[in-house]
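User: Before I run my own analysis I want an independent prediction to cross-check against. Here's the chain; please return only the structure tokens and, at the end, one sentence I can use as a sanity check.
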Amino acid sequence: MAFDGVTIAGIVSELRDKLVGNRIYKIAQPEKDELILTVKGSCGQVRMLMSADASLPLLYLTEKNKTSPMTAPNFCMLLRKHLQNARIISVTQPGLERIVRFELEHLNELGDLCRKYLIIELMGKHSNIIFCDDKDMIIDSIKHISGMVSSVREVLPGRTYFIPRTQDKADLLACSAEEVAAVLRARSLPLYKAIYTGFTGISPCIAQELCCRAGIDADLPSPELSAEMSERIVSGICGLADSIRHEDFCYNVVYENGQPAEYAAVRLSSYAQGQSRNFERISDLLEYYYAEKNMITRIRQRSVDLRKIVQTALERNVKKYDLQIRQLQDTEKRDKYRVYGELLNAYGYGVETGAKSMEALNYYDDRMITIPLDPTLSAGENAKKYFDKYQKLKRTYEALTTLTKETKEEIDHLSSISTSLDIALREEDLVQIKEELIESGYIRRRGNAKREKITSRPFHYVSSDGYHIYVGKNNYQNEELTFRFATGNDWWFHTKGIPGSHVVVKADNEELPDRVFEEAGKLAAHYSQARGQEKVEIDYTQKKNVKKPNGSKPGFVVYYTNYSLVIDSDITGIEQVE
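Assistant: Structure tokens:
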């Protein structure tokens, strides 16, 4: 989710606590829209990242540093000239706007004490970092916005800085209960939309949360609220405003299918308790959340070429398989032609010359059947014609039976590779998948390029009862886990009839508690094409019952003795070991 006013209120609270009274020691601009300010003082040394990136504006404290360019950009040089060793007087947020204003005190070239303002606007594509003097005159900004770009406000040196009022929204922190109710009544929208379009700084996520807390359907039109409902929702909104005023925040990330889905500076009670993680500092939350999101996005971008290769091959094989199945269905009438030939040989002596059909008793089922005849051929020649058709369809059937089996195995193999790409979390996970595609003939190895070093390892989890569970990330790791790592009495899990990872539980010759089977089953469901489903059928058996047919594709196994369970694919709460 994007920054909203509530999240920024939490950031301002932390920055005020950590930065006010301290001095700016170092200013760097590692990216064109990004600053890192190193601040020193009684709190020690801290770094603050400020990003006005259009797709991902950010503001938080971090311990990480970034490499700066050899020549500092002009905006960075200007800030160094004015703000080097400047003292941070205050950190404020106007209302619940997505704006943070740093009031800075420094000595000018003549030694006089001066005040300046560094303002960061976290507004998506309109984000900016603006440097102003004590009269709100813009000295410079990290992005220059001319009148050609925006008719609402120019952001250029020499212009007066002001906050544009482009939307008719109320300031929640300045509203009474009666004014809150009036804002909701004035909008003929679903309740959650009336909330986030009526008040500055409230996101759809927070609006949905307020409706959940009040026990009201978020899609109920706001004019249709009863007096009792209206009282509940107004009380909830005013309670949120009080929490912000008293800086009573709860920083948490909520998960869906094991991946971070949303974050907020207030507790998101609309999600299950086990699907959230709390943080003491908003900066830690933001750094964690966006690092996870960036990693997933980066891997998806890096895997685009591999996905395209797999998807193209998969579509081609699916079309081929459908054609082969239709051709195979056409061969089902081969036995009928054989029976026609046999009956013509048995009873054809009584067929008149030029007859177009023959009635005969089918001695296979004791029923009379009519056999079509070519009137220009004799009974024996008609019989030979039917036997020839039978032999041709029989040969086609035998060839297609082998081909459809090979094509189905190829489809299953490609589907398993596609699942491996979905599972991949790091760049090293893609190396092994690419190697499998090379060895399967879908990618050519360039020139004399050597095989890349494999550093990816299976996922490692520990069950609630302390048993170690391992999950393969791709077909090679699946084989390694099942046939080299696991021992005979370890337990093996896999989704029934669906491509997915092999999951191995190290039993150490002990009898496992039921909870271990449930958690291993959840992992098998989560790391498969059934991820996200609430009911997934899982097969499980001891490793000694799992076999690999000769010449089969990587990761393909068979087993004839197994148990089954139906489980959901939510792995929240299962501890992962790095």
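Sanity check: The two ends are 27 Å apart (CA to CA).
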